[in-house]
Design brief:
This is FAD-dependent thymidylate synthase. It is a single chain. This protein has about 230 residues and is of the alpha+beta class. It has two domains: about 150 residues, Gyrase A, domain 2 (2-Layer Sandwich); about 60 residues. It has a five-stranded antiparallel β-sheet. The two termini are about 25 Å apart.
Length: about 230
């Protein structure tokens, strides 16, 4: 399986594995009555809607999905926050480490028309985009900062410093990291409900949209019933 959606400038979300379907949710619920469906019908769809509406969520944890994600650290850490804070058990997360990996670092650098102002009435989030000429200045400054950090990192490596310390020279928040995320269908929709919200960080919204687009064809009924935010 290699279904992939590109996100931001160099990032992506790739669906690497799926276990189950909407039918798995139905049969997990019906096992209490020793019943099993072999093909999804209208009665099964009504059952999924009932389970989601009434908060009977355990059947949705019998389906799992695995993703490979390549995202700036600021996105990955926000994503991780909702994994560790979730009570939907059996999530797994494995991430590449620059203790061992010395591949060419990649950084997220917003274009001139992508810089956003601070919000007027909140301590977090962002407002409207700023003037493009001013944005161009910030893009250039960030590129210079990244270039300097990369030079210092490579210099440290070439002079024999271990990778786990040399990485201190790399600008962290915009640097891309690669990770595998395996989660139940319920946990995936928990993430989507949080990160598709209009007031969430724009960059992680783009990753949530990619996850939604990959999950929707696999669980068309369940995803619509469990996801509260329109995409």
């Amino acid at each position: 399986m290699n279904e992939k959606i590109n996100v931001l400038d160099n990032g992506y979300v790739r669906l690497t594995n799926v276990m189950g379907s909407d039918l798995s949710v139905v049969n997990s619920a019906r096992v209490s009555y020793d019943k099993e469906s072999t093909e999804l019908d209208e009665k099964d769809i009504r059952l999924i809607k009932f389970l989601a509406r009434e908060g009977h969520t355990s059947p949705f944890r019998h389906a799992t999905l695995q993703f490979e994600v390549y995202a700036p650290l600021m996105v990955a850490r926000q994503h991780w926050k909702y994994i560790v804070g979730s009570d939907h058990t059996m999530d797994a997360w494995n991430e590449s480490s620059r203790r061992y990996v010395t591949e060419e670092p990649m950084f997220y650098i917003p274009q001139a028309d992508e810089w956003r102002s601070a919000p007027e009435n909140s301590k977090q989030g962002s407002g409207s985009t700023i003037d493009i000429d001013e944005g161009a200045d910030f893009t250039e400054e960030l590129m210079d900062f990244v270039e300097k950090g990369e030079w210092l990192y490579n210099d440290a490596i070439s002079r024999g410093i271990c990778a786990e310390q040399a990485r201190l020279f790399l600008p962290a928040y915009g640097m891309y990291v690669r990770y595998y995320w395996t989660a139940s269908l319920q946990s995936v929709t928990h993430f989507l409900n949080q990160r598709l919200a209009h007031d969430s960080q724009v960059e992680i919204q783009e990753y949530a949209k990619a996850v939604y687009s990959l999950v929707k064809p696999k669980f068309p009924i369940s995803i619509d019933e469990l996801t509260r935010t329109e995409v």
